[in-house]
Write a structure and sequence with these properties.
alpha/beta, Rossmann fold, five-stranded parallel beta sheet, 5 helices, globular
């Protein structure tokens, strides 16, 4: 995948339609943080969300148990969404590979080409510098607006 070009709409749509469980590395319980808002919308849209933050491990965010790391999660993860710096994303990507995730999605402002290459070599799909919350409402994807909030 050439990450310098626009991602094909079908590529993003396929990811968002196929994943069910999303681990959010860098999740925050602070409702003013972007990671909280994105996790909230994805959760309300019907995805199973798993917050990951070592500083908040053992607590809850939106009623969801917070894990210390990806490797501490006790169930399969389809997608790892990364809210960390571009440099710190490398560790999260390596952990995503280790746990058998299918997709690594780096949030807006997060890009690590070396980590992306490792993930793709391991068979994962990669998206960088994009927001799944925004992509949900693009024309190629019909959001699940009929869900109760």
């Amino acid at each position: 995948m050439n990450h310098d070009e626009e991602y094909p709409a079908a590529y993003l749509a396929d990811i968002l339609k196929s994943v069910k469980t999303i681990a959010v590395v860098g999740a925050s319980s602070d409702a003013t943080k972007f990671s909280y808002g994105v996790m909230r919308v994805l959760h309300e849209t019907g995805y199973e969300m798993i917050p990951v933050n070592p500083k908040e491990a053992g607590g809850e965010i939106r009623g969801l148990k917070v894990y210390e790391s990806l490797s501490a999660i006790d169930r399969p993860v389809d997608m790892v969404q990364i809210f960390r710096t571009s440099e710190a994303a490398a560790e999260a990507v390596d952990e995503a590979i280790e746990i058998g995730a299918k997709v690594v999605w780096m949030q807006i402002g997060v890009r690590n080409d070396a980590a992306a290459a490792r993930a793709e070599a391991a068979g994962l799909k990669v998206v960088m510098n994009r927001c799944p919350k925004i992509e949900l409402f693009r024309p190629f994807w019909k959001p699940k607006l009929d869900l109760a909030i």
